[in-house]
Amino acid sequence: MIYPESCLERLGFDEIKELITKHCLSPMGRQMVSRMQVITKFDQINKFLRQTYEFKSILENQEPLQISTFSDLKYLAEKIRAEGSYLVEEELFQMYTSLQTAFAVIRFFEERRETYPNLEALFEHLPVEKNILKKIETVLDPKGKIKPNASSALQEIIGAIAKGEQEVRKRMDSIYKTAVAQNWVADGSLTIRDGRMCIPILAENKRKLKGFIHDESASGQTVYMEPEEVFTLNNKLRDLEFDKRREIIRILIALTTDLRPYTPLLLSYHGFLTKLDFVRAKALFAIEIEAEMPVLVKEARCKLVNARHPLLTLSFKAEKRSVVPLNISIRENLRIVLVSGPNAGGKSVCMKTVGLLQIMIQSGLLIPVHESSEVGIFNEIFADIGDDQSIESDLSTYSAHLTKMRYFIEHASPKSLVLIDEFGTGTDPQFGGPMAEAVLEVLNKKKVRGVITTHYSNLKLFAGNTEGLENASMLFDNEKMRPMYVLEVGKPGSSYAFEIAQNIGLQKEVIELARQKTGSNQNRIDSLLVDLEREKKQIYDTKLNLSNQQNKVKNLVSENEKLKLFLEENKKALIKEAKLEAQSIIKNANRLVENTIAEIKENQADKLATKSLRQNLQKELISNQVKEEPKPKPVVEVGGVIAVGDWVQLINTETTGQVLEINRGNIVLAIGDLRSVVKKERLQKISNKQAKKVVQSQSFSGSISDAITNFTAELDLRGMRGDNAVYEVEKYLDKAIMLSFPFVKIIHGKGDGILRKLIREYVKKYKQVNRVEDEHADRGGDGITYVYFN
């Protein structure tokens, strides 16, 4: 239940329907949009939402779904029900194109069976009756016109008409030439009058030519005459045209009679196409407002995450602005949210967003929220928006509000959603505030759900002390004196009446006088609320800064872990290398000692020989000792101090990169598409000009390697003309010579041998060409030429 009906317009749902209507292709789809209404059955809402979501996926994934024409098949089916009725060519063509669309869509979903189950349900058990198309194709051509051979009688009549028109033209040309030769004709050529071809004759010569006058000029000096001979022929042609029309009608009646048994099936196709157009329009609108499919629940509750008002979203998108998202929750222990805050701070937009999105969901429309949002189902949606004054009904603004409150209280239940804007206004605040508080208390006892906006302090106090109610406020920037349009749940908000008045330049004496008249208690409450808002703003900014710092710390920790991992990997590699080197040294030392002992034995321990061998052994062992690395000297950055963004080069190499980060003695480089960590002492800073040269040389070498990879030693010229073939051979040989290929294979075919001769003569002009040879006779013979280079 929606009360009052005008709330749909006030919340903007009528405008939503107009925007969806623009995406419809047919009047049937537009009618379905106009009949959209709020429903309360979970399964039905879920089905409609999923159909729209699946069609949205098809559109976003650019699936090849061909949808071109939607015509009113119901009207055509109803027309052919009566015996003797018939469809004209245009109506038959509309039926034909619409059925083509329906069959193409059915075929699309059958090829993707079970991929879009909710959309498949639209045409469940609906057959593809191609006989209807075949019957229409026997009569109509692809442009929707009657085929000349639709029947043998029609073919004969059309032939007779063509022959008669030719005879008329021939006779008319002959008579016209005679009249011109006799100077009977006025200025001008043959013309049409009353559907008849006539000759413009001077009035004084009209008796000289037998015929029928159809018209005369304004001056009366020229008459338009149809010669007597031609008149008879034209009458025959007109009779043939009548025969042709009668035959066409007979053909159309026969075709319509053949199609009459398919009337129930045509009505089924009509229903399918209508629903398809409707769902397509909803999907296109969902893409337009960036809508998603929230989690649908059966309970009367909602949790909106990053919700945006759809109409505001479209308006801001046109101005290239973004809407501040809304986060709000309505549930069992937080049933009514009381929103307060400054004027023009977004209170009404917040309330209208909740109401409009709920109506859209219960009408089967996707909504602009995060997909983690949860939306339930309400049996009644009540709204009090605007004053609803009525002179006819003798209702004042306040009376209109009270009338709605009476209805809300009488019909509200735990499954009702109540939306009230500027609760309690329209009368003396001294009495309006307590009345609004009483209504709010009764609604809360009935456990209704809702969003209410107000400026009354007594309502804020009541909400703060009552279970089921929750204060919320729209944040306000005290320093810049402007609203932030962010909803903060948990605390009431100040109206900032004095601050806003001061900001717009209202005289100080007026503001001070207003403060005195307001009363000390009210001023103290309002000041406390302002201070609370300021503290909330500071906490919000602090949380934001803390979040940014935490992100920076996370990034630093992540980078540190990467560096640690890199060092650990290098450490393992160095230790492994050192162990291998040590093993090699020990092996060499053992081999030297063994050789020395063997030589001493051979020399039978001769003193001089032994001494000499010992000295040689000592030298070899000293030379194989691992030299202690000198202590690192202070790093001197070659080429100047290295900073982030500088170009550097690895010392004694051609490798060049750009500095991304500097972590103590380590530098993170971007070398092409690679990232590498290098010690600072291994790098030297170079100028941008030097870096550009190195990068260009590297890209050139890369292009050469790419060319070698992509080049094939075979060129096919079959079917080419001589000039084009020579041009291709020239480019091909240049590449082959540049890439140092030993030979290439040119396929030109045998034919008359002209192309072979032309190519071989051209190839011999190259100094680099050593010789040319035919392919083996079994593999193409003289249809293929091998070119060998020096």
Automatic annotation (TrEMBL):
InterPro entries assigned: DNA_mismatch_repair_MutS_C (IPR000432), DNA_mismatch_repair_MutS_core (IPR007696), DNA_mismatch_repair_MutS_sf (IPR036187), MutS (IPR045076), MutS2 (IPR005747), P-loop_NTPase (IPR027417), Smr_dom (IPR002625), Smr_dom_sf (IPR036063)
Residue stretches in coiled coil: 575-606
Recorded GO MF terms: ATP binding; ATP hydrolysis activity; ATP-dependent DNA damage sensor activity; endonuclease activity; mismatched DNA binding; ribosomal large subunit binding; rRNA binding
PROSITE patterns for this protein: SMR
Domain Smr: 715-790
Record EC number: 3.1.-.-, 3.6.4.-
Record's function text: Acts as a ribosome collision sensor, splitting the ribosome into its 2 subunits. Detects stalled/collided 70S ribosomes which it binds and splits by an ATP-hydrolysis driven conformational change. Acts upstream of the ribosome quality control system (RQC), a ribosome-associated complex that mediates the extraction of incompletely synthesized nascent chains from stalled ribosomes and their subsequent degradation. Probably generates substrates for RQC.
HAMAP family in the record: MutS2
Assembly and oligomerization: Homodimer. Binds to stalled ribosomes, contacting rRNA.
Name used for this protein in its record: Endonuclease MutS2
Lineage: Bacteria, Pseudomonadati, Bacteroidota, Sphingobacteriia, Sphingobacteriales
Gene responsible for this protein: mutS2
